[in-house]
Structure formats: C-alpha cells, structure tokens
Amino acid sequence: MSMNFSGFDKEFFMDLHKIAQDIVQKMINKDCFSDAIFNEHIKNYKNLSSEQISEIKRLAKVMFKRTKEVMLTYER
Predict the structure, then answer these.
(1) More confident residue, 1 or 51
(2) Contact 56, 48 (CB under 8 A)
(3) Long-range contacts of 65-71, Cβ-Cβ distance < 8 Å, separation of 24 or more
(4) Interatomic CA distance for residues 20 and 38, integer angstroms
(5) Under a CB-based contact definition with an 8 Å cutoff, are residues 48 and 76 in contact?
C-alpha cells in the first residue's frame, strides 16, 4: 500500500528527493544555490511535469540551506 504525501506517493516522492540531492551536491561544489545551476541540471531528468520540477526545486532549496548550516557548524 502506498502512502500519499503532498499528492505524491512515498516512492515517487523519494525519487524527487534523490534528484534534489543530486542537484544540491552540484550546488554545494559551486558554493551557491542558483536558478541557472538548477535549470542546467534539471534538464538531465526527462519527463518531469512543471509541478514535479517545482517540488524538486523547493526540496533542493531546503536541502541546500540546511546543508550549508551544518557545514558552518563544523567550520567553527
């Protein structure tokens, strides 16, 4: 049985989360979150709806912000 989470089933949400993680990793390497970097990398993933891309971007922003906060904690 699939759990519903914000209109996505759990497995599909995890797929979107993995895409966001891949993109965030590239942004961490460049030390910035930018729409240009996001757009450059999101086009590698075919057949995504605009709603899915928006959700991935939202996830990526949250993940990037949290990752940078954690990195700053370890730099102190």
Answers:
(1) 51
(2) yes
(3) 65/33, 67/24, 67/28, 68/28, 71/28
(4) 9
(5) no
Contact 22, 40 (CB under 8 A): no
Across-strand partners of 8? 5
Query: How far apart, in whole angstroms, are the C-alpha atoms of residue 41 and residue 19?
Result: 9
Mean pLDDT over each residue of the chain, to the nearest integer: 84
The pair of structure tokens assigned to 16 is 């979107």
| pLDDT the model gives residue 38 | 93
CA distance 7 to 3: 10
**Using N-to-C axis directions, what is the helix angle for 50-75 and 35-42, rounded to 10°?**
120
